[in-house]
Specification:
Layout: E1 4-8, H1 12-22, E2 27-29, H2 37-44, E3 48-52, H3 59-69, E4 74-79, H4 84-92, E5 97-100, H5 105-118
Parallel strand pairs: 1-2, 1-3, 3-4, 4-5
Amino acid sequence: MSERVLLGVSDKLLAQCLANLMTKHYQVHLPQSSHHLLHEAEQIKPQLLILDDSLEQDSTELCLTLSKRLPNCRLMFLSSNWLPSLAAQLQAHGVDTVLRKPFSTEKILQTTRQLLDAAPC
């Protein structure tokens, strides 16, 4: 259980549900707040960072910054606003996959495993 997953999710209920689900398989970290996300990501160096569209920060800029500072980290973005243009923009800024809300527990676990299997480290 050495793979590290950082949950950058502002919705506390969703964050706790994801943490409970993933803790069985991975080292799961929850930042103290979305404002500390970048700092904690640099400290933890997760193999996977899961971001949510409820973050108070500009999602595309945050994804670009994270992908530059943590090039070996995979990025998953959870979105309730499914627009192909948004998905394309996020992927152009370093997001590996965009998962549309609502999603099943099986889908997020499967996607998490696929991204971690593809991670370089």
